[in-house]
């Protein structure tokens, strides 16, 4: 769908600091909706998000949370006519879904803002990929990242996530929430049968712990952000074997963890 589908023109008054003058205009803002997710007939969560790629968002969320262990377990996906409800039928371990409701941690994120019980998954997970990527490719991907974000240019109000695959194909998603953007992009990849274990994840938002965990759940070895990383995000990436790059802007970047995957020459 075109970006115009998810924007609205809202009247506003602009005030200028130096002159104290005002002007009336219309501002371009993003639209968002409450999307309900049902798993095997039971409503498990609602998220505030842009009503596009709802199936990918639902699949990515369930896989990232460990509720569904693999894409092949899903037997049916249905989106309601109004686009505000997603119904998924899947083989699941009941213990996995119970973890979604217990031992929650409030996070620094927006929209969903909760992280489930990942501890058992984290301890067993280490990304041992020997993947190498050149700085030249990283700079090119960052240029593509900026050129693709039409909704942000219009509204200044969305996060973007891109999965750059080994064959140079890119999967792109945008949403009002940085968590949602990642869930959507990995959901798209999984629904298309794409391998994320050799992918680079580029995001616009800050790299906090739960963002790193989402990537680890999909065996993604390299994460790059235009924004900052938190101390716990860096610690988590180090523990999970993920190469973490932040502040990738203005012709420089910070490599925080596992720099051996980046070819500096």
Automatic annotation (TrEMBL):
Keyword vocabulary terms for this entry: Cytoplasm, Molybdenum cofactor biosynthesis
One CC-aspect GO term: cytoplasm
InterPro entries in UniProt: Cytidine_deaminase-like, FdhD
Listed name of the protein: Sulfur carrier protein FdhD
Compartments (UniProt record): Cytoplasm
One of the protein's GO biological processes: Mo-molybdopterin cofactor biosynthetic process
Gene: fdhD
Residues given in the record as Mo-bis(molybdopterin guanine dinucleotide) binding sites: 247-252
